[in-house]
Amino acid sequence: MTSQLETAQHPERLRRVAIDPVSRVEGHGKVTILLDEQNKVHQVRLHIVEFRGFEKFIQGRPYWEVPVMVQRLCGICPVSHHLAASKAMDIIVGVKKLTPTAEKLRRLMHYGQMLQSHALHFFHLSSPDLLFGFDSDVTRRNIVGVAMAHPEIAKQGVLLRKFGQEVIRITSGKRIHGTSAVPGGMNKSLTIAERDELLKNIYQIVAWSRDAVHLIKKVHIQDPGLYNSFGTFRSNYMSIVGHNGDLDFYHGKLRARDDNGKIIFDNVDYQHYDRYLEEEVKSWTYMKFPFITSLGKDKGWYKVGPLARVQNCNQISTPFAEHERKEFVDYAGGAPMHAPLAYHWTRMIEMLHAAEEIKNLLHDDDLLGNNLMAVPGERQREGVGVIEAPRGTLFHHYRVDENDMVTMANLIVSTTNNNQAMNEAVRNVAQRYLHGREVTEGLLNHVEVAIRAFDPCLSCATHALGKMPLEVELVDVEGQQVHALSRS
Amino acid sequence: MSQKFSLDGQVIPFEDGETIMQAATKAGVFIPHLCYHPEFKPHGSCKLCTVKVNGRQTASCTMRASTGMVVENNTEELNGERRALTQMLFVEGNHFCPSCEKSGNCQLQATAYHLGMMSPHYDHFFPNRPVDATHPDFFIDFNRCILCSLCVRASRDVDKKNVFALSGRGIKTHLIVNAASGNLADTDFSLADKAAQVCPVGVILQKRQGFAVPIGERTYDKAPIAAQREPEMEGAPK
Ligand code: SF4
Ligand code: FES
C-alpha cells in the first residue's frame, strides 16, 4: 500500500509530463509525471486545487446560518453540506434525536441527492467511457453519443436525475440551495399533493435503477481483465455504518477495514473522529491527506465512497439492493474488491438502494407530520456532523462560542478523504499506459477514466458535453518545454 | 374630503397634512421606499421614494400633498434612478442574500426585485464591519445596514431608550450602539422594543430564529412588495 511513486529520489534529473486539466472532472486537476532518460516513471502526482478559505469565512457567523451558507462550498452536492452542517448544529443545540418526521424528511432529501448525483455521474459522465471504450473517438464519447447509440439508456439517465432533483426541491424548498434543515429539525414537511406527485413515478425509478445495476454489472463481468485490474491498488476503506451494520447514508458509526477486510476500528462515535483520523499537509498540493492515526500516514490512508460503503456494511436493508450487494460480494470472491472501476458497479447498487428507500419513505405518513422541531437540550460548544455524501464520508466540525458565533470550522470533504487513493490509481495507470516519451491521447483518456471512477467533486464536472480541454506538457530536466499536446 | 391630486393619471384623495406617500399608500398605490415607515416621522434620506411633482423631483415621503399636483411615480426614468440607488446600497454593504436569514422577508431584496435589478452593477466596497453578538437575544449584523435610521427613531421616539444612533458623515456614516463599550449587551435593549421590530433588512435579528420559515411561506414569496398593504409591517419579525 505504500506509494513509491509519490516522490522521486532525484527529481532534478527527470522529465516532467503534465496533464492539465483533467476533463469531465469538475474543477482544476493536473497530473504531472516525471521520467528519467530511460523513460522510467519516477514520480506521479495528482494536483487538485481545492476550495480554501471557506472555514475562515464561517468563523464569526451565527451557527444557525451555517447549514445554509455551506451549501455554497460546492455546487455539486450542496445538500450533503446542508445536512452535515445541520447535524453538527443539532449537537450544538443539544438535540441528540430529531423528531421522526424531521429525520425522515432529511433522509428523503438525502436519498434524493444520492439518486441525482449517482445518476449524473453514471449516465452523463461515465457511461460514454463504459459503453464505447476508453480509447473510442472522443467526439462520440459523451452523453450526446450515448443518446444516439443508446437512446433508452440516455433517457433513463436524464429522468432518474430529474426525479432526484424533484425530491430535493420538494424537501428543501428549492431545487438548489434550499433552507429546510435547521438546527434541531426541519422547517417544512410534505403536503399530500407533493408526496403523491413523487409516488406517481417512484416504481419506474426503482425499475430503472435496477436496470442500471444490471447494465454496469454486465459491462464489468464481460471484461474482467480490464475492470478488475485497471488502476487497481489495495488500501484500507472507511465509511459510517448504520444500525446493525446496515448500509446507511445519513447516520451511523464510523467503521474502517484494512485491505483484507479486517476491522481496524468499528462503532466509533464520529463526535470523536479526530481521535482516529489525522490530516497530513504536503508541500506539493493544497489538498490534505487524511489517514488513520493508529496506522500512521504511510499505511493509514483509505478510500471512501460507494466501493468502500457497499463492502463495509453487513447488509443493505432494501431487498433489490441487498440482492445486488450479495452478487457483487460473490463476484469479488469473498475478499474485498479494490478495483477503481468497481466504484461504478457499487455506485449503481447505492442508487438502487436510494430509490428503494425513497419508495419506502413515501409510504410512511410520518413525512406529512407537523412535529418538525425537537426540544433543544443543553447547549454545547462543539459539534460534529457526519454524513455519507454521494462521493464518500463528509465531516463538518464546529466550535461555537457563548454568543452563538462559530469560532472554529473544520471540514473534511469526501474528495479529500479519497485524495491518496486517487493518486494511487493515477500512478498505477501511468505506469501501465505510458510508453516512451510521448503523451498519447490514449494515456490521457486512461488517466481521466481512473480519476473519474472516484467521482471527485472538483468544481467543474458538469462539463458533460463535448470534448474537454486537455493539455499535456513535456518538460525536460531544465524545465524547458520540449513537447506539448492539447485538445480543446 | 374633497382634496385630490393626480398620481400617474390616477386621482388620489388626501387630507390636510398628508404626504404624497401617505395618500398614495392609503389609495393602494405603491411608491418604492426604504427609510419610510407609516408609524414614524419621515426621514427623507434614502431617496428611493423620489417622484416628480409638476416636473420636479422630490421625496414623496416628506412632500405634503396639495390640490392639483401632477405627480409621476411609476415611470421608467424614476425607476431607473431608484434601481441605481438600490444597487449602490447593495455594494456599500455586504449583502449576501443566499445565506442571509432575512432573505424573502427583506425589504431591500424585495425592492431590488421590484425594480428589476439583475446585478449590483457597481464595484463592491466590501467594508469590514464586525458583528455584535454580545446580547443574549439579539445579534447585530452591521454588514447589511442601509442607514435608514428606523431603529434610531423607534428606540428614541417609541421605546424612549436611544439605543441606536447614526454617527459620522457622508460615506463614513455608520450605525452605533449607545453604550460606553459599544456593545448591545451593555444597553437595556430588549425583545419587547419597537426598535427590535423595525429593521427592513437583516441587521437587527433575534437570535436562533433564522430560517424557521420555509421558502414559499416568507413574506415576499407570497406576494411581491408592490402588492403588500404594509410591507414594513409584514417584513418585521413577529
Ligand atoms: S440597523 Fe436596520 S433599521 Fe437600523 S439603520 Fe440600519 S438598516 Fe435601518
Ligand atoms: S422613503 Fe422617502 S427618502 Fe427614504
In short:
The complex is a heterodimer of chains A (488) and B (238). Chain A is of the alpha+beta class and 488 residues long.
Describe this structure in words.
The complex is a heterodimer of chains A (488) and B (238). Chain A is of the alpha+beta class and 488 residues long. Chain A folds into 2 domains: 4-50 and 435-487, no CATH class; 54-422, Cytochrome-c3 Hydrogenase, chain B (Orthogonal Bundle), CATH 1.10.645. Chain A contains 15 helices and 16 strands. In chain A, the strands form 5 sheets. Chain A has a 5-stranded antiparallel sheet with strand order 3-2-1-15-16, covered by helices on one side. A 4-stranded mixed sheet of chain A has the order 8-7-6-11. The longest helix of chain A is centred in the N-terminal third of the chain and has 33 residues, at 100-132. In chain A, 51% of the residues are buried. Chain B folds into 2 domains: 3-74, Ubiquitin-like (UB roll) (Roll), CATH 3.10.20.740; 80-210, 2-Layer Sandwich (Alpha-Beta Plaits). Helices cover 21% and strands 14% of the residues of chain B. Chain B is built from 6 helices and 9 strands, in the order ββαβββααβαβββαα. Chain B has helices at residues 20-26, 76-92, 107-114, 150-158, 219-222, 231-234; strands spanning 4-7, 10-13, 50-53, 56-59, 70-72, 138-140, 164-167, 174-177, 204-206. In chain B, the strands form 3 sheets. Chain B has a 5-stranded mixed sheet, with no helix packed on it. A two-stranded antiparallel ribbon of chain B has the order 6-9. A two-stranded antiparallel sheet of chain B has the order 7-8. Classes of the chains: A alpha+beta (488), B alpha+beta (238). The interface between A and B is medium-sized, with 24 and 19 residues. FE2/S2 (inorganic) cluster (FES) binds next to loops of chain B.
